[in-house]
Specification:
This protein has helices at residues 3-6, 34-47, 51-58, 60-66, 71-89, 92-99, 101-118, 125-153, 158-186, 191-196, 199-209, 240-269, 274-286, 288-299, 306-325, 331-341, 344-354, 359-377, 379-391, 395-415, 421-425. It is mainly alpha-helical. The protein starts with a helix and ends with a helix.
Length: 429
């Protein structure tokens, strides 16, 4: 393992100086057994990072009706993922430095399992939100650490492993979208059982991450004398690329969570059956499986990722235009186009790894871009619910979605320029 990779989880993510800590002699060495276990655990974790959200989107009408939620409250519900990702994701680097990345992701998978198990027993909106928030806390810390784990264990295969992770995430997302309604019907028609069944998948991921809790290498910084201790790293907020990437991440997350939370309802209100609406959402999500591998591959072969940003944005604009003009008539085409557009997510993940030269830089950039990005994405799903309530239709919400695609293209082109945050911050090689 190269020295800079060992530093991934031992370098402070911001301006705070490194704390002198004692590390065992074998710290920083990657155990041989992790070479086959980490890819498996990575895939299982990724598969569980979206079913808590897309299963709810498929049953939104049933859940809001059963818990007597208004459109505004339902909008709050669709904004909870972004809020949790922003608030709790920022703690991931500090927790990983203290306990090790494997232990933190294990805890995240455990929280997801507990939240999904508790949610079906919610008797009211507040309890349902609390159980959802518990699952989303686990997703939040795992979200931030996935690029870090890829960079740390596979420094020479960042593109391919990011592609594998993105494909698994898209597969889990689409699986929940397409099977939640049929599973609900098969289990007796109650939305509570349809949501709770996804806890079983999370249990498998918990088991896979148990051995990785023992891998503490890189979780603490080596002891340094006063002369050897490094100067505080420049604040990442001084990097224009970091801000552009954070804004790009936030805008693509806005579109993704609006799609996952509201698209089935838009199709159902247009006359599409609940089962078909779930299939349409699954088509949108499943596009991330092939493109989740292709896009990181392209990123590693292009000096600038601007052209990819523009193509994905154009697909999004076309999909929203179709959804506005003929939501039911061309439903499959619009779902396909929006699925291509939503692959801005694996693009953003890969750009995080490309915009820094070191593992320490990746963990700082990942935490900053994802936490700031998710904060920026909070109002979007909420605003869609409010606009739908006030207007009584979907024209205004769809126009909002399309309008947000324009700044996403602009900041994406800026984030895709061939430069690193170290260059902008004046950090020496």
């Amino acid at each position: 393992m190269p020295d800079e990779e060992t530093a991934t989880l031992s370098h402070p993510p911001a301006a705070a100086p490194a704390e002198p800590l004692h590390v065992p002699a074998d710290a920083g060495r990657t155990p041989s057994w992790t070479r086959w276990l980490v890819p498996l655990a990575l895939v299982l974790a990724a598969v569980n990072l979206r079913p808590a959200i897309t299963s709810l989107g498929s049953l939104m009408k049933e859940v809001t009706g059963g818990l007597h939620m208004s459109g505004g409250i339902a909008g709050v519900l669709t904004s909870v993922p972004a809020f949790c990702f922003a608030v709790f994701g920022i703690t991931a680097p500090r927790l990983a430095r203290r306990f090790g990345p494997g232990a933190v992701v294990f805890a995240g998978m455990t929280a997801i399992t507990a939240g999904l198990l508790l949610r079906p027993f919610a008797g009211g909106t507040v309890t349902f939100l609390a159980a959802s928030a518990l699952a989303l806390m686990g997703i939040a810390v795992s979200n931030v650490l996935m690029p870090v784990i890829v960079k740390r264990y596979f420094p020479d295969r960042v593109g391919s492993m990011t592609g594998l992770y993105s494909m698994a995430l898209a597969a889990g997302t689409s699986l929940a979208a397409v099977t939640t309604v049929p599973l609900t019907d098969a289990l007796g028609g109650g939305w509570r059982r349809g949501l709770g069944v996804w806890a079983l998948l999370a249990v498998v991921a918990v088991a896979a991450w148990i051995p990785l809790t023992r891998d503490r290498s890189g979780s603490a910084a080596p002891a340094l004398s006063a002369k050897e201790e490094p100067a505080p790293a420049p604040r990442i907020t001084r990097s224009g690329t970091a801000w552009a990437l954070a804004c790009f991440f936030g805008l693509q997350a806005t579109g993704a969570y609006i799609t996952m939370g509201w698209m089935p309802t838009i199709f159902r209100d247009a006359g599409v059956s609940a089962g078909t609406a779930g299939l349409l959402l699954s088509l949108t999500m499943v596009m991330g499986v092939p493109l989740g591998f292709v896009i990181p591959w392209l990123v590693n072969r292009l000096r600038s990722q601007g052209p990819i940003v523009v193509v994905l944005g154009a697909c999004g604009l076309a999909g929203y235009a179709g959804l506005y003009l003929a939501p039911a008539g061309g439903a499959w085409a619009w779902a396909l186009l929006l699925g291509i557009s939503n692959c801005a997510f694996p693009l953003a993940l890969t750009m995080i790894s490309k915009r820094s030269r070191t593992g320490a830089g990746v963990v700082r950039l990942s935490a900053f871009a994802q936490c700031v990005g998710y904060l920026l994405s909070i109002p979007g799903p909420l605003l869609v619910g409010v606009l739908h309530d006030r207007s009584g239709g979907w024209d205004l919400p769809i126009a909002l979605m399309a309008g947000l695609m324009v700044p996403q293209i602009v900041v994406g082109v800026l984030a895709g320029r061939d430069r690193t945050i170290e260059d902008e911050l004046g950090v020496r090689r």
